[in-house]
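Worked Example 4.2. Consider the chain below.
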Amino acid sequence: MGQEPFEVIIDALGSYAVSFIPDVHLVRIYSDEQDRTAHLEICLHDGSWERQSAAIDSMVEIRAMYLNELSISYEFDTETDDELSESARAGSQVFATHSR
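Applying the procedure from the previous section yields the following structure tokens:
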């Protein structure tokens, strides 16, 4: 059985991240198919340490799920707009939760 197309993997990663990470508002993914890498910028509704800690626990599980397919890094971002910031690189994908 062959490996899933890269775009499908990234789409699944984004969809899963917004549904699995607690208190998430927005996830931006910057990916490189050649290197098989994905970098997530995670925006939370509440950026407190407790919420970030819960998100880190979720990311440990997410990274384990994609261990054989992607190298995943992540960071927390304070930018909560649904629009990409000016510094966003071309080719990123945005996954957002519904407004609460």
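The radius of gyration is 13 Å. The first strand starts at residue 24 and ends at 32. Compare this with Example 4.1 before moving on.
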